Amino acid sequence: MHLKLKLSNKPHLFGLFVQIPSPSVVELAGYAGFDFVIIDFEHGPLGIETATNMIRAANACQTSPVIRVAKNDPFLIGQALDIGAEGVMVPQITDYDAAVDAIRATRYGPEGIRGACPCVRAAKYAGTGAPYFEKANKEVVTILLLEGKAAIDNIESLMAIPSVDVLMMGVWDLSSSLGIPGRVDDPLVLDKMERIVREADARGIDLGTLWLDSAEAKRWAARGLKFLPTVDTTMIVEHWRKTVEAINK
Fold first, then answer.
1. How far apart are CA 132 and CA 108, in angstroms?
2. Distance CA 110, CA 205 (A)
3. Would you report the helix, strand and coil content of the chain in percent, each value rounded to 5?
């Protein structure tokens, strides 16, 4: 099922940021049952060739591939979609203009400015007819990553932007911008996040945020958040650490 349909049909989607440059990790995530993977160009040591094979792995195990681009750049967004990502996550969105630029970069004209080439992988290398471009505009999933106090200050205008599928709350950058980096459970951070949740609830907008343990994932899901990824490296090291501690007792 395409990510767009999953967002429409499922109450919650659980996924995985993949920072390890390996198609095998993507396959493991898919076979484990994650709804989506986010191939992470902002914080992962990835190249475009490896990412293409990671998307192939996602297709093979029926998890939805998303790419977090390194920055809000039309070329990077278009490249991510050309290799077959079902959606893009765009970081460092702080104001209305940045959000509109990101959305327009995900769409072909007249809705946007995405470079049109019918020979890319997303078009099965032969999308020479109008239906491919229409389908691409209809199905693309745009996830905007709200990071920092500036995004909170501009939250009402950001909530009013059409064609956004998910607004993702960047809790770590928010804590840093508030002068308390890493203290993501601080009441000040939680209060700012709660404001975003209230605004989204009032407008029927899907939200997402990061979780690092299953209890946290369940809390956010119970609060109504739909798009909930964790991180491959953290999950692996925490599980291994607990295993080592258990066998050394």
1. 10
2. 25
3. 50, 15, 35
The DSSP annotation for 135-165 comes to HHHHH-EEEEEEESHHHHHTHHHHHT-TT--
Give residue for tokens 């967004």: 77
Domain ranges of the chain: 3-247
The distance of Cα 144 from the centroid of its chain, to the nearest Å, equals 8
CA terminus-to-terminus distance, the chain: 44
Give tens-digit pLDDT for 101-118.
Answer: 999 999 999 999 999 999
User: Which residues does 241 contact at the CB level (< 8 Å), separation at least 6?
Assistant: none
Cα 85 off chain centre by: 11
Q: How far apart are CA 239 and CA 28, in angstroms?
A: 15
Catalytic residues: 43
With CA atoms as reference, report the closest residue to 42 among 22, 18, 16: 18
Cα–Cα distance, 154 to 157 (Å, whole number): 6
- Taking only the tens place, the pLDDT of each residue in 52-103 is 999 999 999 999 999 999 999 999 999 999 999 999 999 999 999 999 999 9
* Rounded (10°) CA dihedral 64, 69, 126, 56: -40
Please check whether residue 135 is in contact with residue 107, taking contact to mean a CB–CB distance below 8 angstroms.
no
**8: helix, strand or coil:** helix
Model pTM? 0.94
Angle between helices 74-82 and 96-105 (to 10 degrees): 40
Domain 3-247 has CATH 3.20.20.60: yes
The single-letter code of the amino acid at 249 is K
Q: Under a CB-based contact definition with an 8 Å cutoff, are residues 205 and 164 in contact? A: yes
